[in-house]
Design goal:
Helix 4 packs antiparallel against helix 9 and helix 8 packs antiparallel against helix 11. Helix content is 76%, strand content 0%. The chain is mainly α and 272 residues long.
């Protein structure tokens, strides 16, 4: 990494477990073991699709309480991650500029952000469990769901080994969106009557996240093309852009077919 100014965030509280984190040791472990994500992903795909076959002739499980607890855990975790990473994110932009925030991975040396970046990376394994509720409750398993889970896991583990600067943006956005999303899932599992517009807003947030991620990767490509420093490898740019673009297309298709086509199809009935 080139010699650039590092962020220095004045947190009101820094927890002991955040102070004790050793990002260098974890980075070394990830460098040696990031390919485990391939194993986890393969096992994940085998389990969910064999699970679908297993459940075909069996009654569905309700699992509302378990789903509510599961989603609540992820909601609280994501909310904490968002709360703890936003200060460094805003500080880097306010004091050094947007280009700094996407090109200089100073977050890596920040104890608080560094800790939650590690948990973010590891949490992508835990989140694979979401799909088991879909399988056991015999709900529709769409391509977007399982593709998004295993692709994000592999990219997050692969990327941590080089701590790309735009991960600052990706982590903050993901924590924030997931805080809303898993809160929605938890409340829905507890049978709260959630208005349809809430779901539309959450999906819109996901789409916005993909648009911003794609724009950042294109911007970084142009910055590097001009010969300027930006800490993200060309290979990572290609992988990230491909992944986020595919997410945008899939989420866009989901938004259109779920909220627009169905709305249009209901219109004639309302007229009659």
């Amino acid at each position: 990494m080139e010699n650039h100014p590092k962020t220095s965030v004045n947190y009101s509280v820094v927890f002991d477990f955040e102070k004790k984190i050793d990002s260098d040791s974890f980075a070394q472990w990830m460098t040696e073991n990031w390919t485990h994500s391939f194993v986890y992903s393969i096992v994940y795909l085998i389990v969910i699709f064999s699970g679908k076959v297993y459940m075909q002739k069996r009654p569905r499980y309700e699992l509302r309480t378990a789903l509510a607890i599961w989603s609540a855990i992820l909601a609280v975790f994501s909310l904490m991650g968002a709360i703890r990473t936003w200060p460094e994110f805003l500080h880097s932009i306010r004091h050094h500029g947007i280009e700094y925030s996407v090109c200089v991975p100073s977050y890596y040396y920040d104890k608080v952000f560094g800790f939650w970046a590690i948990l973010f990376t590891l949490s992508k394994v835990y989140e694979l469990g979401d799909t088991m509720f879909i399988i056991l409750r015999k709900q529709q398993l769409i391509f977007l769901h399982w593709y998004h889970h295993f692709a994000t896991l592999m990219y997050a583990w692969y990327s941590y080994t080089e701590y790309p600067a735009p991960a600052r943006w990706f982590i903050v956005m993901n924590y924030t969106v997931h805080a809303f999303m898993y809160t929605y899932y938890a409340l829905k599992a507890m049978k709260f009557n959630i208005p349809r517009w809430v779901n539309i807003i959450i999906t819109s947030m996901q789409l916005t996240q993909m648009i911003i991620a794609c724009a950042i990767n294109i911007w970084i490509y142009n910055i590097k093309k001009r010969g300027k420093f930006c800490h993200q490898s060309d290979g990572n740019i290609r992988i990230a852009l491909t992944m986020y673009l595919s997410y945008f297309i899939l989420f866009g298709h989901f938004f259109y077919t779920t909220y627009m086509v169905k709305k249009q199809s209901r219109s004639p009935k309302k007229i009659q």
